Amino acid sequence: MDETARTLLGFWFGPMTYDDAAIAERQSALWWEKSERVDHQIATRFGTLLQQAAGDWTHCGTQSLRSPRGTPRDRASGR
After folding, report:
1. SS (H, E, C) 36-49
2. Do residues 19 and 27 lie in contact, with contact meaning Cβ atoms separated by under 8 Å?
3. Residue 10's Cα: distance from chain center in Å?
4. CA 13, CA 23: separation in Å to the nearest integer?
5. Which helix (H) or strand (E) element contains residue 5?
6. How far apart are CA 31 and CA 29, in angstroms?
7. How many angstroms separate the CA atoms of 56 and 77, rounded?
8. Hey, which of 19, 46, 60, 74 would disulfide with 70, CB 3.0 to 4.6 Å?
9. What would the pLDDT profile of 22-46 be if each residue is shown by its tens digit?
10. Domain boundaries, the chain
11. Could you tell me what percent of the chain has a pLDDT over 90?
C-alpha cells in the first residue's frame, strides 16, 4: 500500500485493530459529527487527493452527469 493510502486510511480509521466495534466507537465522532476543524483538516491534508479523485468525468457523457448536486467535482466535495 502506498504512503498516501496509508495516511488517508490512518486518518479515517485511526490505529488499525481487528476489533471493528472499537474502531467505530473511537472514530464515530470523526465520521458523523459536524466539525469545522475536521473539515479544515480534511481539506488541508487531502484536498488535492479529493480533486484528483473527482477528476474530469466529461468523457462519460452528459447522461451520467445529470444530478441535482451539480458536477462530479461538486459531488466529490459535498457541495
Report:
1. HHHHHHHHHHHHHH
2. no
3. 13
4. 7
5. helix 3-13
6. 5
7. 14
8. 74
9. 999 999 999 999 989 999 999 999 9
10. 3-77
11. 47
- Cell numbers found for residue 33: 459529527
The pTM (predicted TM-score) of the whole model is 0.60
Residue 64, pLDDT > 60, answer no
Instruction: Retrieve residue 65's grid coordinates.
Output: 452527469
Q: Amino acid identity, residue 43?
A: A
How confident is the model over 58-62, as a mean pLDDT?
A: 61
Q: Could you tell me if 38 and 45 are in contact, meaning their C-beta atoms sit under 8 angstroms apart? A: no
Where does residue 14 fall: left (phi above 0), alpha (psi -120 to 50 degrees), or beta otherwise? left
- Contact status, residue 54 vs residue 79, Cβ threshold 8 Å: no
Please tell me the predicted confidence (pLDDT) of residue 66: 46
* Distance (Å, whole) CA 9 – CA 57: 25
pLDDT score of 50: 84
